[in-house]
TrEMBL record:
Secretion signal span: 1-33
InterPro entries named among the record's database cross-references: DUF1573 (IPR011467), Ig-like_fold (IPR013783)
Protein name: DUF1573 domain-containing protein
Keyword Signal found: yes
Gene3D superfamilies: Immunoglobulins
C-alpha cells in the first residue's frame, strides 16, 4: 500500500511539473507575440520645390511580427506638415501607410521635418523625416497689392527717363510711358505739370484700378538749340509718393536750312 501511495504521489508531482512548464511556455509565447513595423525607408527628400505648392509622400511599412499593429498617434514637428495614417489594425504580413503632406507657402529655403509614429509594435516609436528646398516665389503685382493690410494705391513706373539724343529745334518728339497701380485701391492721376511748358500730355484715363495700367503719352517740343532737360510732374493720390518725376532730355540743334519769320500772330517757315 505504501508503494502504491508513493506511485500516486510521483504521478501527481510529475503532472504538476508538466502543467507548470506548459503554463510558462504559454506565458512566454504571449510575451513575445507582438507586431513589428518595418519601413521601406524612413527618410524622403523632395528635392527643389516651387513656393506655394503642397507636396506629399507615403511611407509604407510591413508588419513583420505575429500580432496586429495599432497606431495610436502620429505627430509632426511643425504645423506646416500634416500626417495621415492607417486607422485600422495592421495584421501580420500586411502593409500600412504613413502619409506626410508639406505646405511650402510662405516657407522659402531648406526644410527638414520629422513625423513621430507611436504604436503597440515592438518598435513603439518610429521617427520619419521629410526634407527639401523651397525656391522663393517672385511677387506679382497682385501679391504686392494683396499684401497690404490698409487699402492704398501705389504708382509704379518701370521707366521714367527718356533721352532723345540729337534732335532738331522745334521738332515735336513723342514718348509713351506706362503707369501701373500696384496698390489695392484706385489710383487717381490728379494733375500733370510741364516745367518748361514745352510738353503736352495725352492720358487715356485718370483713374487706374488696382492691378491696372494706363498709358501716358508725352509730346516734347524743345524751343532752344542747346542741350535741354525737362522735368514733367505726375501728381496722384499715392500717399507715400504723391509726385512722380519724368525726365525728358535731348541735344537740340538749329537747322539753318530753314528760317522762321513772324508776321503778326502768324509764324512762317521758309525752306532755303
Amino acid at each position: 500500500m505504501f508503494n502504491s501511495t508513493m506511485k500516486n504521489f510521483k504521478d501527481s508531482f510529475l503532472l504538476i511539473c508538466l502543467l507548470g512548464v506548459a503554463s510558462t511556455c504559454l506565458s512566454m509565447t504571449s510575451v513575445y507575440a507582438q507586431g513589428t513595423m518595418k519601413f521601406d525607408t524612413e527618410k524622403h527628400n523632395f528635392g527643389e520645390l516651387a513656393e506655394g505648392v503642397m507636396v506629399s509622400y507615403e511611407f509604407e511599412f510591413v508588419n513583420t511580427g505575429n500580432k496586429p499593429i495599432k497606431i495610436s498617434k502620429v505627430t509632426a514637428s511643425c504645423g506646416c506638415t500634416t500626417p495621415y495614417w492607417s486607422k485600422e489594425a495592421i495584421q501580420p504580413g500586411k502593409k500600412g501607410k504613413i502619409k506626410a503632406t508639406y505646405n511650402t507657402t510662405g516657407r522659402p529655403g531648406n526644410f527638414n521635418k520629422s513625423i513621430t509614429v507611436n504604436s503597440n509594435a515592438t518598435n513603439k516609436l518610429v521617427v520619419l523625416f521629410i526634407s527639401g528646398k523651397v525656391n522663393r516665389k517672385k511677387k506679382t503685382y497682385k501679391d504686392i497689392s494683396n499684401g497690404s493690410a490698409k487699402a492704398a494705391p501705389k504708382l509704379f513706373m518701370r521707366n521714367k527717363i527718356k533721352h532723345f539724343g540729337m534732335t532738331e529745334n522745334r521738332l515735336t518728339l513723342r514718348q509713351a510711358f506706362e503707369i501701373r497701380n500696384t496698390g489695392n485701391a484706385p489710383l487717381k492721376i490728379e494733375k500733370l505739370v510741364s516745367e518748361c511748358k514745352c510738353t503736352v500730355a495725352n492720358l487715356t484715363q485718370n483713374v487706374v484700378p488696382p492691378g491696372g495700367r494706363v498709358m501716358l503719352e508725352l509730346m516734347f517740343t524743345p524751343t532752344k538749340a542747346e542741350p535741354i532737360q525737362e522735368s514733367f510732374y505726375v501728381y496722384t493720390n499715392d500717399t507715400k509718393s504723391p509726385r512722380t518725376i519724368i525726365t525728358l532730355s535731348a541735344d537740340v540743334y538749329e537747322n539753318f536750312s530753314r528760317t522762321l519769320f513772324r508776321r503778326g500772330d502768324t509764324t512762317l517757315l521758309l525752306e532755303r
